[in-house]
Design a protein that fits this description.
InterPro entries: Restrct_endonuc-II-like, tRNA_endonuc-like_dom_sf, UPF0102_YraN-like. Pfam families: UPF0102 (PF02021). Belongs to the UPF0102 family. It comes from Saccharomonospora piscinae. This protein has about 130 residues and is α+β, with helices and mostly antiparallel strands. It has a single domain, classed as Trna Endonuclease, Chain: A, domain 1. It contains two helices and five strands. It has helices at about 15-30, 80-95; strands at about 35-40, 45-50, 55-65, 105-110, 120-125. Strand 2 (about 45-50) and strand 3 (about 55-65) form a beta hairpin.
């Protein structure tokens, strides 16, 4: 089940998140991965980026922060969030009628300070 989104207003947390996901997609392609889908949604939630290296399904959670007031981007991927992402990945497999495939769960953490360049950190096999 996919849904369309209204455009994000510049300067909002949603726009910052969208920018981070755009950067993550470009980064993953430059690493030689194929981005299969972005922002896949179902009733239970959303997966940010699904990619593959040709053998493994790579489920990427993208977290972008403009400052450290709420901690580092990677710290936002809590145990509950990790469990939800695992369940959503199984829902994605079922929705795409993929019986089974090797999976890996990564986090792409982006610090994007106002007026400064973004800094991306890719945690491979984060959980």
């Amino acid at each position: 089940m996919g849904t369309s989104r209204a455009p994000d207003r510049p300067g909002t947390p949603a726009a910052l998140g969208r920018r981070g996901e755009d950067l993550a997609g470009v980064y993953l392609r430059r690493q030689g991965l194929i981005v299969l889908e972005r922002n896949w949604r179902c009733r239970e939630g959303e997966l940010d980026v699904l990619a593959t290296d040709g053998r493994t399904l790579i489920v990427c959670e993208v977290k972008t922060r403009s400052g450290r007031g709420y901690g580092s981007p990677a710290e936002a991927v809590t145990r509950d969030k990790r469990n939800r992402i695992r369940g959503l990945a199984l829902r994605w497999l079922a929705a795409r009628r993929v019986a089974w495939c090797p999976m890996r769960f990564d986090v792409i953490a982006i610090d994007h300070p106002p007026g400064g360049p973004p800094r991306l950190r890719h945690v491979v096999g984060a959980f």
